[in-house]
Amino acid sequence: MAAEVFKFPHDETHVIYSLIKTAKRLEETSVAQCVKVQKDIINLLLLECRRSNIRTRAVVRALKTLSNE
Fold first, then answer.
1. Contact between residue 40 and residue 19 where contact means Cβ atoms under 8 Å apart
2. Whole-angstrom Cα Rg for the chain
3. C-alpha–C-alpha distance, residues 54 and 69, integer Å
4. 49 with 43: CB under 8 angstroms?
């Protein structure tokens, strides 16, 4: 059990890579499971894009505030 804990993904990037590997393994044996994993990957990527967009807007606001001073 301890070995599996060490292999557990540390951040969302690792989770996405792990899910991609899982999807590739399932591609030939279980298409339905593969599609479910691919949906999870898409949802995680969408979440990352939203977070990036929020960060970008915050930086732009901060820069505008600094340039107005």
1. yes
2. 18
3. 23
4. no
pLDDT at residue number 1:
43
| Euclidean distance between CA atoms 42 and 3, whole angstroms | 28
The single-letter code of the amino acid at 27 is E
Count helices and strands (H / E) in the chain.
3, 0
Chain mean pLDDT for the chain: 84
Say yes or no to pLDDT of 69 above 70. Answer: no
Q: Are residues 26 and 33 in contact, defined by beta-carbon separation less than 8 angstroms?
A: yes
pLDDT digits (tens, 9 = 90+) for 4-32: 555 555 666 788 888 999 999 999 999 99
- Give strand ranges (E) for the chain: none
